[in-house]
Design goal:
heterodimer; A: 551 residues; alpha+beta; FAD/NAD(P)-binding domain; eight-stranded antiparallel beta sheet; seven-stranded mixed beta sheet; 12 helices; 23% helix; 19% strand; B: 199 residues; mainly alpha; 7 helices; 1% strand
Chain lengths: 551, 199
């Protein structure tokens, strides 16, 4: 009846009978190997930025792999509408409670539910961490160091940038030398032009954003047509989501994808090793045996799964001897400044963030806070913009309609800012259960004073940039956050982390985590490229351990 | 503020390359949806209709949006957004309680149903609601201000700006697949975009 929730895809798996959808061809299929419920080498829970590359690269090494996702397997060319409301089908809309001083907005904001995960609706901004942000404790005096050296990550970033055909500038203004991006930059839209003019006026560097949408045809995919609906899913397949890149590669290498499969619990034996997963698919619970289990459900579903898998021997949750599962939940600050200009901006055109400045990621002086941030141009769609105006400025009634009708002259800049790890920000289990009978997550988050100082600086700076380009009537959007991280952090020892640098649990040797929840710190850039780089590294490390007989 | 795009209609592009089949299919179903509820009952629907009228006014001189029908559909489906503040019930239960409470506030203050009080009275009541100043017994454990900012406002404005009339009024390009845009620079537009009419 209504297109809000009960799409038929919600109930009917498409993967099976030896085939999976070809996401690049209407009504197309790819032959797919199936393993039944026989024991496989790896079952991966989640097919987003972490699970999808891992599935591909493990299958290519000859491991038997099943990757499950709670969401549907879409063919964007025929399944995606140019419409915010209909595309809610991409988001994780199951119940979650939010609390703390600054309850988070989840769902469309940062949580996907589809084969391909949140990469189906991400804004495609593909940035490398500043090298020092992998060692912020020892280099910059805050947070905690990653157990991985930035130079190793640099190699994996290059691998992912090639795989996703990232379009980016010839010369990147910040950080150590990096190779040229695989594809040329996209032409800038109006929002990007205003960012560039503002940065020039303020005397800082800016650049075209390295972005995961094609600027030239590749294989069956056309280049980006600048339709602007990026965050509601790309219907032309220019966006290099996991769905159109890693997933077909995984299937071709012999991995099985199980769509609409909600994993509720990881089973363990008397010795404490994982034996497989209980999952719900096609209206029934099933059990999949596996020699290794990988949680790749991102920073809320991964700790939720580990906590929901508690047993007599591990009563506080699986892999939780440190007590850190669910703790150190981080988001990224997403505050903005907006203003009105004479020329028409029409921010609905093109990828929303085509220009960027990382100046305040790479500059430590002149700050009264710790951590870094970047800022980028913006392009909100109508319903999202209406919610922003209503929420931030308290507009409703005719005042809201009037302000909406000025949208084509509105220009904005938004930050992606580093939130520091804080054990009090966390994911726990609520008493309520969801449609599968599983306890739902409770997500608790409060800003610290450090974050409040960072957002004040960032918003004042972005406003200055807008005003330097002639924007009038500028205003702040002080209440917004974006990407998630933390909750199953990696580290150098079992007391202070959940997994090691390879993503392997300290407590359960055949349980792994491969997603943004392993981030010890989140840095000041969008996380998707780093999650994928880490997944590539984990795949290589698993191969190396297997060759040494240490798996 | 007057409509600056009076000659522009997103739906005029229905048969153009800006609309793909999926978009036509879902917009067709959406625009013909009627405001019928299995779960709210007449009095609550009347209260909701008045809320929609005051919070999300219809665009002048354009086909009216069926915002009420979309909000009812969301409530009937109990379709959440993937997060709600601890203490706020699920979508349907929260709306049922709040619609009763808003109506009770109107009866308490004006001796009439919310649907029947004047526009000015309704707006004063809504302003109080938005500022968290309503505490009548009918609210029970529901925090009125939380309901306003986490349920009422997002549900109403998301439904309202899901209608092509609202897109046309603001000069939004509307559906854009497979054809997107060529001219993205400030001050430029493609022939299939709205033209700003100077007052």
């Amino acid at each position: 009846m209504i297109d809000q929730r009960h799409d038929t895809l919600d109930h009917t798996p498409r993967c099976g009978d030896g085939r999976a959808p070809d996401p690049l061809v209407p009504a197309g299929w790819l032959p797919m190997r199936e393993y039944g419920e026989d024991e496989v080498d790896f079952v991966i829970v989640g097919t987003g930025a972490g699970g999808a590359p891992l599935a591909a690269k493990l299958a290519e090494q000859g491991f038997s792999v099943i990757a499950m996702d709670a969401g549907a397997f879409f063919r964007p060319l025929e399944d995606f509408a140019s419409d915010e409301m209909h595309q809610r089908k991409l988001y994780w809309t199951d119940d979650r409670l939010v609390d703390g001083d600054n309850p988070l907005q989840l769902g469309a904001n940062n949580s996907g539910k589809a084969v391909g995960g949140s990469t189906i609706h991400f804004a495609m901004v593909s940035l490398r961490f500043r090298p020092e942000h992998f060692a912020s404790r020892s280099k910059l005096g805050y947070g905690v160091d990653w157990p991985i050296d930035w130079r190793e990550m640099w190699r994996y970033y290059e691998e992912v940038e090639r795989m996703l055909h990232i379009s980016g500038p010839v010369r990147y203004p910040w950080g150590p030398k990096r190779p040229r991006y695989p594809l040329r930059v996209h032409p800038m839209n109006a929002g990007a032009q205003y960012l560039a003019r503002g940065a020039k006026a303020l005397g800082i560097d800016w650049t075209e954003t390295p972005i995961a949408t094609l600027s030239t045809p590749i294989g069956k995919a056309h280049p980006c047509v600048y339709r602007g609906f990026c965050v509601t899913g790309c219907s032309t397949n220019a966006k290099q989501s996991a769905l159109v890149t890693w997933i077909p590669r995984a299937i071709r290498a012999g991995a099985e994808i199980r769509d609409l499969a909600m994993v509720g619990r990881i089973e363990t034996d008397a010795s404490g090793r994982a034996t497989g997963v209980h999952y719900h698919r096609a209206d029934a619970w099933h059990f999949q045996k596996a020699r290794h289990v990988v949680a790749a459900g991102y920073a809320i579903e991964t700790p939720r799964l580990l906590l929901n898998s508690a047993n007599a021997a591990q009563p506080d949750g699986l892999a939780n001897s440190s007590g850190l599962v669910g703790r150190n939940l981080m988001v990224q600050l997403n505050q903005a400044a907006w203003g009105e200009v004479d020329k028409e901006v029409r921010a609905y055109k093109g990828p929303p963030s085509l220009a960027i400045s990382e100046h305040w990621n790479y500059t430590d002086a002149g700050k009264d806070y710790l951590g870094g941030w970047t800022y980028m141009s913006q392009g909100p769609l109508p319903a999202q913009w209406a919610r922003t105006l209503a929420r931030t400025r308290g507009l409703w009634g005719q005042a809201l309609v009037d302000e909406m009708n000025r949208a084509n002259h509105t220009v904005g800049l938004k930050m992606v800012g580093e939130v520091l790890p804080n054990e009090a920000n966390r994911v726990t289990l609520a008493d309520e259960t969801d449609q599968y009978g599983l306890r739902i997550p409770r997500v608790t988050f409060s800003y610290s004073d450090n974050e409040k100082r960072m957002m004040r600086h960032a918003v004042a700076f972005m406003k200055q940039s807008l005003e330097a380009t002639g924007a009038r009537d500028t205003w702040d959007q002080m209440d917004d956050t974006c990407h998630l991280g933390g909750t199953a952090r990696m580290g150098r020892n079992a007391a202070t982390s959940v997994v090691d640098a390879d993503g392997r649990s300290w407590d359960v040797p055949n349980l792994w985590v491969c997603d943004g929840s392993v981030f010890p710190t989140v840095g000041g850039v969008n996380p998707s490229l780093t999650i994928q780089a880490l997944a590539c590294r984990t795949a290589d490390r698993i191969g190396a351990l297997a060759r040494r007989g240490e798996l | 503020m007057a409509d600056r795009y009076p000659d522009y209609d997103v739906l005029a592009k229905w048969d153009s390359p800006s609309f793909n089949d999926k978009t036509r299919e879902i917009l067709h179903a959406r625009m013909k949806l009627l405001p019928r509820s299995k779960h709210l009952g007449e009095a609550r629907v009347a209260t909701l209709a008045r809320l929609v009228q005051r919070v999300t006014p219809q665009p002048e001189g354009r086909a009216p949006a069926n915002t009420l029908a979309l909000v009812i559909a969301k409530i009937d489906a109990d379709a959440g957004d993937g997060f709600r503040p601890a203490g706020l019930p699920r979508v349907r239960a929260a709306w049922q309680c709040a619609l009763d409470a808003i109506n009770a506030e109107a009866r308490e203050g004006h001796g009439a149903a919310f649907a029947d009080i004047s526009d000015a009275q309704a707006d004063v009541l809504l302003k109080a609601l938005s500022e968290g100043q309503l505490h009548g017994a009918a609210w029970g454990n529901l925090d009125a201000r939380t309901f306003w900012s986490w349920r009422l406002i997002p549900d109403l404005v998301s439904a309202h700006w899901a209608h092509p009339s609202l897109w046309s009024a603001m000069g939004f390009g509307g559906p854009a697949s497979p054809r997107g845009y060529l001219r993205q620079q400030a001050g430029y537009r493609d022939p299939w975009e709205a033209e700003w009419e100077h007052a």
